[in-house]
Known about the structure:
By secondary structure, the chain is α/β, with parallel strands linked by helices. It has four domains: 6-70, Up-down Bundle (Transferase, Pyrimidine Nucleoside Phosphorylase, Chain A, domain 3); 75-319, Pyrimidine Nucleoside Phosphorylase, Chain A, domain 2; 338-451, Cobalt-precorrin-4 Transmethylase, domain 1 (3-Layer(aba) Sandwich), CATH 3.40.1010.10; 454-575, Methyltransferase, Cobalt-precorrin-4 Transmethylase, Domain 2 (2-Layer Sandwich), CATH 3.30.950.10. It has 25 helices and 19 strands. It has a seven-stranded mixed sheet with strand order 3-2-1-4-5-6-7, sandwiched between helices. The chain has a five-stranded parallel sheet with strand order 10-9-13-8-14, sandwiched between helices. α6 crosses α15 (284-300).
Amino acid sequence: MEHPFTKFIRVLGKGQRGARSLTEAEAEEALGLILAGSVRPEQIGAFLSLVRLKEETAEEVAGMVRALRHSLPPGPRVPVDLDWASYAGKRRQLPWYVLSALLLAGRGIRVLMHGLAQVGTERRSVADALKALGIPQSYSLDEAVDSLARTGFAFVSVASFSPQIMKLLKLKQVLGLRSPIHTVARMSNPLNAPVSLIGIFHPGYDAIHQQAARLLEDPCLFVFKGEGGEAEVNPDGTTQLYWSRQGMAQQEVWPARFEKRHLRDDEMDCARLYRVWTGEEESDYGEAAVVETAAVALFALERAATVEEARALAGEWWEQRDRRRFTGPRQDSILPGKVFLVGAGPGDPDLLTVKALRLMNQADVVVHDNLVSPGVMALLPPEVTCLYVGKQRGHHAVPQEGINELLVRLALEGKKVLRLKGGDPFIFGRGGEEIETLAAHGIPFEVVPGITAASGIAAYAGIPLTHRDHAQSCIFVTGHLKDGTMDLDWENLARPQQTLVVYMGLHGLEILCRELIGHGLSPMTPAAIIQQGTTRHQRVMTGTLETLPAQVRAEPLQAPTLIIVGGVVGLHRTLHWFDREMPSPSGR
Length: 588
């Protein structure tokens, strides 16, 4: 069966005569599938490369922006006046535009800034500027809403509100190409502000932004070639403004403020932003960049009708700014803590690693999920703070994005964080997603492997996963149902002389057995399902692909369960050894 994403690659890559651009609806569907995690990595690479090779159209950008906006979590919102994208960072001059945004916020204009918190060692980001001013960034859209209500300003990293988009942005390092996702992220406007301000580096993208904004029916979008690719006016040169307001495209040229160009800032010390704001230091370039950029924003917000009025008003606000508004860089700043991603094993606390047990006794806070057994939790010191973020079928105590944000926040508070996960964190544990977020925020981390359910539970059930006479290979898959089906590679799974281990497959057992038989395995193939393996609640039920579903219907089991299919299951009768009534050495 053809993968549902294949059609988009075919449309884009069918040769010079057969290929075409995607329609707006097709682009929305394509990115929607990617954001839902339904597309394979090689397909994503091909898709982004093909779109970039032919150059994205406004229709494709608009469709993908719709998909991104639809993927954002619903939640409390607050009226926002200006959406400000910041995805490039500054290399030649400091990010003076941050002071422009704060200047506006001090006058009651609510500004949401979003983008990249880290932009490489040679560039300076919004996060660098905020740290120098003593201003915290937000780690979710909900936190951004709170900050906007309190201060009129918020910055939230794209890694916090759309980790999937962050992954796509990072593919630039792999593909060697700037993908259309860079444009899509800039236009995300996550809190639906009526006016958007976007800086570009490459000429030509202004038209695409304008046209896409009209297709999206965005009220107002301003775009210009800013210094370093950010939405910051370079006062040394003319500024060509392009905007779309209520579907009408317009443009205007603003003259330069200086006749001679300023030298590059070789030090790039963000502490100067604070000193210039307080008046301790002067910078003709920096202050001109702040005022000019604020003037563009005021013009976009229709607070001024002409360039002269906008410049005059921005200049007046700059002179009257509250110079004691910010605390500056704290000398006693808390150093980031560290996150330890630790596998708790399949259930029996005696199966913990020595390192896992040591870290459990050293942690300041433990963030644990539903699959960590009570026996393991009982080994934690009584004084440690424990936060439950477990997931059960149909109910997530905390969404995955919220867990990612929580880990970042706790680490930034200087805490030693133990992220305790059942089994092994890198085997169907979403550990990779969590440390990607940590890496994006510069949070140090370590990974401590655990005994995964497949090996631990199979051993306690007396079922060797490999055996010279029965299985020369072993495959692990997840049996989660999606829209009532299992999207698995059935042809490769339904092969003799191999062992198939299915995690979280209890509710899909009938589909699993039916598909394996339908793709060639004998109905008499041995199969087993193990309930709560390695604990005193362990229960092993064996049968065949044909009989096992009926056995489970007759004697229901409780999750978590593990399913094992293959000839090795037949060895259970003679190799089982674990007596669930027998106390473990730890007494649990």
